[in-house]
Amino acid sequence: MAAFPLTTHTPLSHNQRPGGQGATLNSGPRSSDTEAEALAVRASEAEDANEVDIATSYIEVEYLSSFATRLQATSLQVQRLEDRLEVLIEDQTKRLQRVEQQRPGILSLPSTRSKWQAETQANLALLRRMHGRLERVREVRDGMLPSGPLIEHLAKQKLRAQDPELVDSWEQARQARRVHEQHLLLQDRAKKRVANAQGAESGRVHSISLQRST
User: Fold this and answer.
1) Residue 12 falls within a domain, yes or no?
2) The model scores a pTM over 0.70
């Protein structure tokens, strides 16, 4: 009976086995493409962020400049009003003192005493109103709101009334920046989750490879 020649099978090396190093040799170009795409995405994101920063910075400079002008004008207006009221109060105090010094004597007619009392009460009421107005002016100067100083709030109101388009652009620019920063934050979190998942998968594959090699 004829003997058939035995065929010797050469064991596949690690580089030739499916899933081995040889199987990953063709993944080089794909990996390069992935890296290129990632770089392109990051470059696009950086460009978008730069455009947002430039637009917001331009509007911010214009808005803050206009706001500073209104704030200075409001502060000067309040200061002038305060100075004016202080002068008026000083004059009115002197006037009241002169009226009080003209107090009718005991022998004066009732009509004379009534006229003096009416004049005294009128001057006293006017002085009290002046003091009340001065207090309100100082409250404007020194008052505080939950959002900040009252005088800044008034300056912002004046700016909105005089240049509503600039205020709207400023608010839209700030909103765009907040949205963009939130978007970048979510992207960063997503990248970290992917990196963690890839790290876990790489560790699992490495562990399986070690188990097979033993």
Assistant:
1) no
2) no
